[in-house]
Structure formats: structure tokens, C-alpha cells
Write a sequence for this structure.
């Protein structure tokens, strides 16, 4: 099993550009989420999904869109990149039920100039 | 709103010394708390959860509801313990609220 994979590993965008961060998991997990990691602020939840076709907002959803058309994939879209979105982005998944352990991807480091 | 606070951004101790990473939470219910760790160039991973009452890599954490704390402790620090540590609180079915993180450095 590859676990949770994310692409790309690094990305530089200009202000106003759009892009999609990819996330996939091969563990058949129902729950997937996106976090951003910023110094001194920990990990903050952007969006999450409890299953295919179901998404909801987290703590910091503005400027980001998500969709969940399959169990495996959970892409994060930046609609119009801003310097404030410079961060490291982590995707995570968990199986649900009684297990609340989240499995994290390796992260995507995004810089917006 | 549920919150998790880790008051120390940085913590530096000598090898062999005891380690305590602090975590305080606010939650209007029965909390479920976790410690996650991120070693250099590795993924964030679960270290331990309070319901398991287990010791992982020599670390333990006790939930103190009176003090709303879930401090992470280890009696004798090792160099390989150097990492970023996050305390997290379960909110809802599968959502986690993370603290700000503490970077632990173990000096030889």
C-alpha cells in the first residue's frame, strides 16, 4: 500500500493563478481531510469529507474548493492564489468507526509570489 | 469552540533528562486526545492516544480532566526524540483540532 499520496511536492504560483493539489489514498478510508501547516499556528483544517460525494468546511476554507467523486481521491483547488496561501498542505485519511487515527500524506509546499 | 493550546513553541533538553511537553484543551464534553509527531523528513504520524493508556517509545500522556491537560512525558530523553510534536483533540466524528505544535530538540 502506498498509503496517502500527494502531488506535487513543491509548487510556486503567481498571485491570481489557480491550481489543484492532488491527494489519493489506497486504504479504502471513508474520511479524508486537508490541512495547512503554518509556523506558530499548527495544523488548521481547510475542508474534509466523510465519504464520496460529501464534503464540508473546516476552520479555514476561504479560497479553497474540494470535491470527492471517488473514495480514493480528494483534490484541493486554489481558485485564485494569494500570498497568504503560502503554506505546507497536508492531506489525511482515516477509516472511521472506532479508529480516529489519521494517516497523513507527505505534504505539498506551496509558495505564492 | 474546542481549543488546544501548546504553550511552548520550542523546548530544548539534554539527552537523559526528563521531558514534558504541555498540552491544555477546552472542550464541553468527554474529550478524546492524541499526540502526533513529525520527525525530520517524515510524515506526521500518531504517537499515542489517551484512551489506549499505552506507552510508545517511552512516552506516556495522562488525561487530567480537572486541569484540562494532556501533557506528554518521557523520563529519559533520547536524541531520536527530536521532532515536532502536536497535541490534538477529536471534534465530531473524525475531525481533529490541533495545537500549535512544540519543536523538541534533544541536545547530546
Amino acid at each position: 500500500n502506498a498509503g496517502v499520496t500527494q502531488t506535487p511536492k513543491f509548487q510556486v504560483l503567481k498571485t491570481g493563478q489557480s491550481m489543484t493539489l492532488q491527494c489519493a489514498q489506497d486504504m479504502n478510508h471513508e474520511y479524508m481531510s486537508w490541512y495547512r501547516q503554518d509556523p506558530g499556528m499548527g495544523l488548521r483544517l481547510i475542508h474534509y469529507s466523510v465519504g464520496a460525494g460529501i464534503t464540508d468546511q473546516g476552520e479555514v476554507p476561504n479560497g479553497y474548493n474540494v470535491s470527492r467523486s471517488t473514495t480514493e481521491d480528494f483534490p484541493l483547488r486554489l481558485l485564485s492564489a494569494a500570498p497568504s496561501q503560502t503554506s505546507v498542505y497536508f492531506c489525511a485519511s482515516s477509516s472511521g468507526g472506532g479508529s480516529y487515527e489519521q494517516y497523513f500524506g507527505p505534504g505539498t509546499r506551496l509558495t505564492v509570489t | 469552540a474546542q481549543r488546544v493550546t501548546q504553550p511552548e513553541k520550542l523546548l530544548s533538553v539534554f539527552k537523559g533528562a526528563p521531558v514534558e511537553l504541555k498540552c491544555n484543551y477546552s472542550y464541553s464534553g468527554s474529550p478524546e486526545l492524541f499526540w502526533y509527531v513529525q520527525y525530520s523528513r517524515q510524515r506526521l504520524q500518531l504517537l499515542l492516544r489517551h484512551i489506549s493508556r499505552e506507552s510508545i517509545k517511552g512516552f506516556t500522556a495522562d488525561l487530567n480532566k480537572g486541569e484540562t491537560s494532556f501533557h506528554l512525558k518521557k523520563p529519559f530523553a533520547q536524541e531520536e526524540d527530536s521532532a515536532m510534536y502536536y497535541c490534538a483533540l477529536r471534534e465530531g466524528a473524525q475531525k481533529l483540532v490541533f495545537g500549535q505544535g512544540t519543536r523538541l530538540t534533544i541536545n547530546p
